[in-house]
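Dear H.,

Thanks for agreeing to be a second pair of eyes. The structure we're designing against is below in C-alpha cell form, covering all 164 positions.
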C-alpha cells in the first residue's frame, strides 16, 4: 500500500507544466500568429480581386454564348444590357418575355456591379475607358469587356484592374 501512495504522489508532483514548456508554447503561438495575421488581413482585398475575376468570367461567357447563338454577331453597345438580360430572337431583337420567336437568352440575370476601385458599386457599361461612373468597358467590335478603372488602380500584386 505504501508503494502505491508513493507512485501517486510522484505523479501528482509532475502533473503541472514547467515554465520552459509554457514559454515554448507561447513562442509557437506567436510564430503562428505572425504568419497568419498578415494573410488574413489581405483576405478582404483578395476576395474583391477574386470577385472581379469571377464577374469578368461570367460577363465574357455570356458575350461568347450570345455570339455563338446569334451567328457570330456580338451584342451592340447601345442595347448590351437588354440583350444580356432579356430574351432575344435570332436577329438579336430583345423582348422581356419568352415566346417561340424570342427564345434565346437571357444570358445574365443582371449586370454585376464592380467590386473594386473608384467606380465600386457601378454596373453601367461604357464604350471607352473613362473616368465616368460606369463599372464596365465594353468594345462591341471585339466583344472585350473590362473594369472601367484607370491603370493606376492596381491589386495587391501590382496588376492593373483594367487589365484583368
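And this is the sequence the design step returned. I haven't edited it by hand at all.
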Amino acid at each position: 500500500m505504501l508503494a502505491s501512495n508513493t507512485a501517486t504522489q510522484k505523479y501528482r508532483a509532475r502533473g503541472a507544466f514547467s515554465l520552459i514548456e509554457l514559454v515554448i508554447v507561447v513562442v509557437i503561438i506567436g510564430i503562428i500568429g505572425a504568419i497568419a495575421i498578415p494573410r488574413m488581413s489581405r483576405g478582404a482585398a483578395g476576395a474583391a480581386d477574386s470577385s472581379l475575376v469571377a464577374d469578368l468570367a461570367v460577363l465574357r461567357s455570356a458575350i461568347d454564348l450570345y455570339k455563338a447563338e446569334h451567328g457570330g454577331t456580338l451584342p451592340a453597345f447601345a442595347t448590351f444590357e437588354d440583350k444580356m438580360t432579356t430574351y432575344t430572337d435570332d436577329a438579336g431583337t430583345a423582348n422581356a418575355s419568352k415566346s417561340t420567336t424570342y427564345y434565346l437568352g437571357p444570358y445574365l440575370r443582371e449586370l454585376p456591379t464592380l467590386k473594386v476601385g473608384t467606380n465600386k458599386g457601378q454596373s453601367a457599361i461604357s464604350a471607352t475607358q473613362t473616368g465616368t461612373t460606369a463599372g464596365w468597358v465594353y468594345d462591341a467590335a471585339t466583344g472585350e469587356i473590362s473594369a472601367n478603372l484607370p491603370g493606376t488602380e492596381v491589386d495587391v500584386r501590382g496588376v492593373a484592374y483594367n487589365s484583368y
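Two observations from my side: The first strand starts at residue 87 and ends at 88. The beta strands are 87-88, 94-95, 125-126, 136-139, 144-147.

Warmly,
E.
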